[in-house]
Write a structure and sequence with these properties.
It is a single chain. With 212 residues, the protein is an alpha+beta fold. The chain has 2 domains: 72 residues, Glutaredoxin, CATH 3.40.30.10; 109 residues, Up-down Bundle (Glutathione S-transferase Yfyf (Class Pi), Chain A, domain 2). 50% of the residues lie in helices and 7% in strands. The chain has 7 helices and 4 strands. The longest helix is centred in the middle third of the chain and has 28 residues. The N and C termini lie far apart (36 Å). The structure holds glutathione (GSH). Glutathione binds next to α3. The site of glutathione (GSH) has 11 residues, from α3.
Length: 212
């Protein structure tokens, strides 16, 4: 059986969610939140030190969305919009938007938030990065708000990996600090996604959706 290297509240949420949707399971190895970058055993598996990672025999996959795609394809799941479906280009667009566009400013904010032993000058620079990332996030969220007009899900009239991709940054954006950045459609969509997950008990860690 494949092994998923996981840490709670990380992008492994996407993988666990995909597993729930397709009704599959994997072995899950949970790592401490930090300092995994110094854990030689994990660095031997993924020299980049990032999570999640999926090891399946000789195959190692290190991108959360590539792991989701791999698992869904193996199960013939319609979470993937097939190349011959009309909205395939939109599927790829929103799949990538979740990580490359919406998550990117959130990651920048998380990264500068972890800097320790700050001088006042550093704090000034950090505050500027945080303000810029927040502005960028609010602009990027507008595209999502527009796309959700008249739609329950992002593409193909059904739940797909594009929703699971975007669901991860939206989970973070459910925290009160970000509440004002999401429009009404995006907030309702986030609640729909939270309600979407199967309630069947599975031998997998909880998805850990943030409460708002
Ligand atoms: N694009 C990658 C990003 C992976 C990533 O940056 N994961 C975070 C956790 S969610 C991480 O491990 N960061 C390194 C660290 O914080 O030590 C993916 O989607 O899997």
């Amino acid at each position: 059986m494949a092994t998923l290297y996981h840490v709670p509240t990380s992008r492994s949420l996407r993988v666990l969610w995909t597993l729930e949707e397709i009704g599959a399971t994997v072995d899950v190895t949970s790592l401490g939140v930090r300092p995994r970058l110094q854990e030689p055993e994990y660095l031997a598996i993924n020299p980049a030190g990032t999570l999640p990672a999926l090891i399946d025999g000789d195959r190692a996959i290190y991108e959360s969305l590539a792991i989701c795609e791999y698992l869904a394809a193996r199960h013939g799941s319609d979470l993937i919009v097939a190349p011959d479906e009309p909205e395939r280009p939109e599927f790829v667009q929103w799949l990538l938007y979740g990580e490359a566009t919406l998550q990117a400013p959130l990651s920048a904010m998380a990264r500068v938030g972890r800097i320790r032993n700050k001088t006042p000058e550093m704090q000034t620079g950090i505050d500027a990065v945080l303000a810029d990332a927040r502005h960028s996030l609010s602009m990027r969220a507008k595209l999502l708000e527009q796309r959700l007009e008249g739609r329950d899900f992002l593409v193909a009239g059904r739940m797909t990996l594009a929703d699971i991709s975007v669901g991860y940054p939206l989970n973070t954006m459910g925290k009160p600090h970000f509440a004002s950045l999401l429009g009404p459609r995006a907030r309702a969509y986030r609640e729909r996604l939270r309600g979407q997950r199967s309630s069947a008990p599975r031998p997998l860690p909880s998805l850990g959706w943030a409460r708002n």
